[in-house]
Design a protein that fits this description.
Elements (H helix, E strand, L loop, with lengths): L12 E3 L17 H22 L5 E2 L10 E10 L6 H9 L16 E5 L4 E5 L13 E8 L5 E7 L20 E5 L11 H11 L6 H7 L2 E7 L17 H22 L4 E4 L29 E3 L4 E5 L2 E6 L2 H9 L5 H10 L30 E7 L3 E6 L5 E8 L1 H4 L1 E6 L5 E5 L11
Parallel strand pairs: 2-3, 5-7, 8-9, 9-10, 10-11, 13-14, 14-16
Antiparallel strand pairs: 1-12, 3-4, 3-6, 4-5, 6-7, 8-17, 12-13, 15-16, 17-18
Helix pairs in contact: 3-5
């Protein structure tokens, strides 16, 4: 008796990763001042219209043009002076230290303070209206206040760029059968904590090889899988030597081979986007370029295999997605205070910048003509991979924006993937465990 195959639903996919590609870029020793200038110039134009609406009668000044006691508005880039910020000299002192030095996970200090910079100069900010712990270097804001006699600027009001304009959701998605997108990150194939059986359970579930007909019908509604970084855990220590043996070469590439086998099973059943992460064999600085197809000789043969950049921006059935493999949010948590990862993500949306700490404390390419991390159009879904735990919330903007924030947990440590319903942007966890089989879980 032949079993009738269940057709998998499809969604129209449009990649918007070109803004993060470095095909036309050539490094000629340029510095990061060009990137900061492009960022300030871009946001000054955005903030000008907001300033006119909020403070129509208040003059806008440059820092050099400030006059003591005059109430005015200044637009500039924040610089956060930090006592504990790592530096090259600190690294040198650690090498010469007799005993090991502790590594802080956060670098905030009570003596930190904020400075505002523009093309004309810089000035220290004071006042209770601006909290140093909530901001980081690289954010462009407008402040209203006055210069004091001691040369500092007393901040009375703050104006952030806010959520950018958002295209409406396609009306057809609210009707009909649901479609889902699966998010997974932190597979870490080849690491000591990785459980190959647990990963295989995920692959079998997504491809429809597990469960009864009801569960398979649910699986057939998954239209795409997003793998948000840290897919392999390679032993880069083997590359420290000038030459490695044939045995070490095989050991080095074994995780990639194992990942390719699993990816080949996935892409044979559905479209898959794989993003590079902080520990993947890709360039270190943002934006990370797609993992080379030669790493996946099996999966790359399928048209459903898509090597994405990090950050990754795309549309599915008219729904706009943008997300990262986690470096931008992890860096924010080191240099500012926040309740949780979702709060950091919401801040980047309101600042209209995916990676405000780049290039100060987060590596990025020295662009000279643009800042690709500026969020010009508000996404409907904003995801961040390789986080400690799952979290989700819906952010609402003043102009009717609705953004689903999604913190994707590390699969190797939690065994969790996330499913997002395209019809209503609701999320739920997909938990894979091998404990019932008497085997250890990841």
């Amino acid at each position: 008796m032949e079993v009738e195959a269940i057709p998998r639903k499809i969604a129209i996919f449009v990649s918007e990763d070109d803004r993060f590609m470095l095909r036309q870029q050539k490094y000629k020793g340029q510095q990061y001042s060009h990137l900061y200038y492009c960022r300030l110039h871009k946001f000054r134009g955005l903030l000008s219209s907001l300033i006119q609406k909020r403070w129509p009668a208040v003059p806008v000044r440059t820092i050099l043009g400030l006059q003591e006691g005059e109430c005015c508005v200044v637009v500039g880039t924040l610089y956060k002076h930090m006592q504990l910020k790592p530096s090259v000299l600190d690294e040198y002192s650690k090498e010469r230290a007799v005993g090991p030095l502790t590594e802080p996970h956060k670098f905030m200090h009570s003596d930190d303070y904020l400075i505002l910079e523009d093309e004309s100069g810089r000035i220290k900010l004071t006042g209770d209206m601006i909290s140093c712990q909530n901001y980081v270097t690289g954010i462009v804001i407008a402040i209203c206040g006055q210069e004091c006699s001691d040369g500092e600027f007393l901040v009375q009001h703050i104006l952030e760029p806010g959520l950018p304009p958002q295209a409406p959701l396609p009306s057809k998605l609210t009707t009909g059968e649901p479609k889902f997108v699966a998010f997974v990150s932190g597979l870490r194939v080849g690491s000591g904590g990785s459980n190959p059986l647990q990963f295989q359970l995920l692959v079998d579930h997504l491809t429809g090889h597990l469960g009864e007909e009801q569960e398979q019908n649910m699986t057939a509604q998954i239209v795409r899988v997003i793998i948000a970084g840290d897919s392999v855990d390679m032993q880069y220590s083997l590359l420290a030597n000038q030459s490695i043996s044939l045995k070490e070469q095989k050991k080095l590439i074994e995780p990639i081979k194992e990942l390719d086998i699993s990816l080949t099973q996935l892409v044979s059943a559905m479209p898959v986007d794989i993003m590079p992460g902080p520990n993947d064999p890709a360039n270190f600085s943002l934006p990370q370029q797609p993992l080379h197809k030669c790493l996946f000789p099996g999966a790359a043969l399928y048209s459903t295999f898509f090597a994405a950049t990090n950050p990754h921006q795309f549309e599915l059935d008219g729904i706009r997605f943008i997300g990262t493999s986690g470096q931008n949010i992890d860096d924010l948590s080191k240099y500012s205070e926040g309740k949780d990862q979702l709060e950091y993500m919401e801040r980047t949306l309101k600042w209209r910048h995916l990676a405000p700490t780049a290039p100060d404390t987060l590596g990025c390419y020295p662009f000279t003509d643009r800042d690709p991390f500026v969020i010009e159009t508000c996404p409907h879904v904003y995801f961040c991979g390789n986080q400690d735990s799952y979290a989700s919330c819906l952010v609402k903007g003043p102009d009717g924006q609705h953004v689903r924030l999604l913190s994707v947990p590390c699969f190797c440590e939690t065994g969790f993937a996330v499913l997002l319903n395209l019809r209503n942007l609701d999320c739920h966890l997909l938990s894979l465990s091998t404990t019932s089989l008497g085997l250890p879980s990841a």
